[in-house]
Amino acid sequence: MKIPELLAPVGSMEHLRIAINAGASSVYLSGKNYGARKFAQNFTLDEIHEAVKIAHLHNVRVYVTVNTLIKEHELESVLNYLNELYAIGVDAVLIQDLGLIELINRHIPKLKIHASTQLTCENQRKIDYLESKNVKRVVLPREMRKEEIETLKTNMELEIFAHGALCYSYSGQCLMSSFKGGRSGNRGTCAQPCRQKYKLNGKKDYYLSPKDLCLYDELKEIAELNIKCIKIEGRMRSKEYLGIVISEYRKALNKLKSNKTSKTEMLNLVFNRGFTKGQFANTYQRSIRPGHLGLKIGKVIDVKNSQIAIKVNDTIKTIPEKGDGILFIKKSDDYGMEISQNPIVTTLNHFNKNKFKQIKDLTRPNKVLIIKKVRQNKKNNFKLETSDVYLTKRNSLTKLVKEIENKGSSFVKSKLILTFSLKNKYPQLKGRLTLANHKEVTCEVTGTVKFETPLKRNVTQETIEKQLSKLDNYPFQITQINMNYDGNLFIPIKEINKLRRELLEGLEAEIHKLYENKKEKITFKQNPQNRSEEILLSYYTNNLDDLELIKGVERVYLEIPPNNSINFMVNFLKKAFEITYAKNYDLIWKWPDIAHDDLIKSLNKVRGILNKMGYKLKIMSNDFKGDYGPYSMNITNTESINSLKNYELLTISPELRKMDYEGIIKNCKDNSKIELLVQGSVELMKTRYGFKENIGSESLIENNNDKYPIKYNLSGEELIIFNNEDLSLIDEIEHLASIGYVNFSIDGRYKNKDYIKMIDLYKDVLNSHEINKEIFRNSTKGNYSSNALGK
Questions:
Q1: Which pLDDT tens digit goes with each residue over 199-249?
Q2: Which residues of the chain have pLDDT under 70?
Q3: How far is Cα 350 from Cα 347, in angstroms, rounded to an integer?
Q4: Cα separation of 668 and 664, whole Å?
Q5: Where are the strands (E) in 67-206, listed by range?
Q6: Helix/strand/coil (H, E, C) string of 757-785?
Q7: CB 682 within 8 Å of CB 721
Q8: How far is 776 from 576, CA to CA, in rounded Å?
Q9: What residues are paired with 593 via a beta bridge?
Q10: What angle do CA 712, 717, 718 make, to 5 degrees?
């Protein structure tokens, strides 16, 4: 059983020291730009350099997140930033942007790339592609199940999230914050619209807010999989969260070495919205509130005068104390308070007899906790009876985390062999340090003061060994001290201490040199080449009847309605092929944007059957191996376009602004290879979590009564949440065509047949004809004109 690497989130230098002391094997952090947590404190380049030095001294690896989508005008800047990180000696960078992967391989090939979870790498085809691009590790989507991970075959390292917040949508596939609030999750500024209440089937709830992930009890299963690293989420969490979560997981992983498992209540006492095993165990539970929930300790059984009696669950070992915070929850209401006086713990039997006798044995079953209300609590109208009780704040945790912060230790210490000798009576000290990665550094220092014949007393071997054994808080372990000295001479002890300090400083400097790299100068050029002038339209549909009516387009992207029966899919596509055989457009089969390997197998089987029957269809897929690429591929720059050489056509991300579109078209090699979605419903979320409720034809309704349609994907397993209003760039189409865009698409999925008229309307505008734009009145330009943060 291989114990996985424990990867800790670090949002500041203070958090770095806590993560190291708590037992992290590695940490991930971000610079001030290009990281997916823009609102964390984050690090300057100088701070990253210092963090790398500290971490490497403690045998802790440092991964820097450069995992936002990169705009065209940022390419040169981010490449030089990556070059700085390489010179500093970071162990790897986490990347979402496909173009950035291409640039690193071209200009900084020795910089290790980890594929961010935002690349949504959920199937073997994507795994294979990333491996071919020199990616060393892939962070799998949180939606991957244990049995799906087991079947993956790759030489890349696999990393999974084990603890922390869950997004409702697949990471990298959420545009809700972007379209609703102008703050893009793909650019590190998510506004978390998923944490608010929505209405479904007439009822309000936190439908898009999952409980937090906790795979603490699954660590043994994880260790038995081919998982290299488990990741803790939380760069914006408190140091109490970081210290407790990392230390608890470290203790549990250490026990696994002896095939022992662990139990803990500590994880519940730091921030959580309740816990779920998530899709790893094929489960989903939504949170009952968007904020911290805590540890459920019991239920209120009685409220008399100023006293609250709580029946404590027998499994609970953590008993609330004075100064702790508790939360009462009943249905959708809650009320929190701090315990202002020492509570009484008695038995249920004593309580029923109206005897409030404090018991000494807190492990006894049937305990009742009695808490006194203070004046301000008495004023609250919340009805406490029968409410569930949660311990939300534990005062003693602050002291515990302070101890972790100040202990000055590390998970793995480097092994040090010292050799002391004299050279022409000058003391000489050599050190050979073996790091956790088995690399060695050496250092040799010579004193400036000679040993002398003693006047009164000599300095013994034992005295020198004692002084050399003082490590001055360096995270080393001395395994051997070789003494080439007979103990008959004298030197001031301060000279031995000085020699030791110089050696330790020298070894530290050698460790830094081991990781640092020479920075090469990078020249960045972009050379536009082929330019097409023929303007072509595409149309999306999932309705066979539309195929008869559509005309005046170059391509039709056909999506199969939800039904993963092989026979249904074959017959649907066969009929579509027959309808369109004599049409003047190309029929392209649009695969689901999210396709786990079971679905991929079905799709390939359908494709094989159709090929044998002579029905050959081109494919729209975002798995890096299709013929046409949908906007879910998050293309935001020309380097991403150029990297996907096998694609005939790629749709650019609808998150972009006008200036971004202008930058791409100016620098792209071939304008005929890119397409823009200009009309239709934008997919805001793709999720595997679904709803417990039957959605039917329902929409998710926001507080302002905006309705977001919900649809199933082909497999019937994933859901897609669409924007409440159509994207429409009808007013911008002439400008886009004038700067060089020649391919435009209209999404008519889930629309009635009248929507096909959009084709003629756009053609009229492109031909400078006047049209009635009343039909576009309730549409949006999305982010096209946005100047919002994070765009």
A1: 998 899 999 999 999 999 999 999 999 899 999 999 999 999 999 999 999
A2: 36-40, 375-380, 408, 528, 787-791
A3: 5
A4: 6
A5: 92-95, 113-115, 135-139, 157-164, 198-200, 203-205
A6: HHHHHHHHHHCCCCCCHHHHCCCECCCCC
A7: no
A8: 30
A9: none
A10: 60
